[in-house]
Amino acid sequence: MSDPTQPPVDPTRNDPTRSDPTGSMPAGSSVPPAYESPAAPVYPSYPAPGTPAAPAYGQPPAYGQNPYGQQNPQDKYNVLAIISLVSAFFVSLVAVITGHMAMSQIKKTGEKGYGLALWGLILGYLGIVTGIIFAFIFIAILVSGAATTSTFNS
């Protein structure tokens, strides 16, 4: 169906730049061209060297938080510090060795766990000293028991 308020269309005319159906106006006189040239691309501007860059997207991170949701290195506990404290209750020598290694790593990396490593060392050394004392007492009991001979004369 056609609209009666519109002028008739000439099917033989194929020029899309003319708006007037009669063809009396010159091509392109009051009508913009059907296709425009593309706009020039917009390139991002970069900050001057030495200035801090703003976050690329999203809200700026809160103070002390990593912007991508990962833990900061100083928020992690040193694994050797945990091993030192746990092994202090079972094998004191392992606690002392891993405690010293953990304290060295904590000083270099800034991780958490200095107190765990310290307590692992304290309990490890205490366990070693206690073990040595018990060993001397056990040896003394064995030597004193061997020195006394019991003879049953009946």
Summarize the structure.
This protein is mainly alpha-helical and 154 residues long. The protein has 3 helices and no strands.
Explain what this protein looks like in three dimensions.
By secondary structure, the protein is mainly alpha-helical. It has a domain at 76-146. Helices cover 40% and strands 0% of the residues. It has helices at 79-87, 92-109, 114-147. α1 packs antiparallel against α2 (92-109) and α1 (79-87) packs parallel to α3. The longest helix has 34 residues, at 114-147. It is rod-shaped, with a radius of gyration of 44 Å. It starts with 78 loop residues before the first helix and ends in a 7-residue tail after the last helix. The model has no long low-confidence stretch (mean pLDDT 79).
Query: Which stretches of 5+ consecutive residues score pLDDT under 50?
Result: none
CA gyration radius, whole angstroms: 44 Å
Category by helix and strand content: mainly alpha
Strand content: under 5%
Please give the largest β-sheet. Answer: none
Count, helices: 3
Any idea what the shape is?
Answer: rod-shaped
Strand segment tally: 0
H/E element string?
A: HHH
Give the proportion of residues in helices.
25-40%
Mean model confidence by pLDDT:
79
Distance between the termini: 139 Å
Protein name: DUF4190 domain-containing protein
Organism: Cryobacterium glaciale
Region (Disordered): 1-36
Biased composition (Pro residues): 1-10
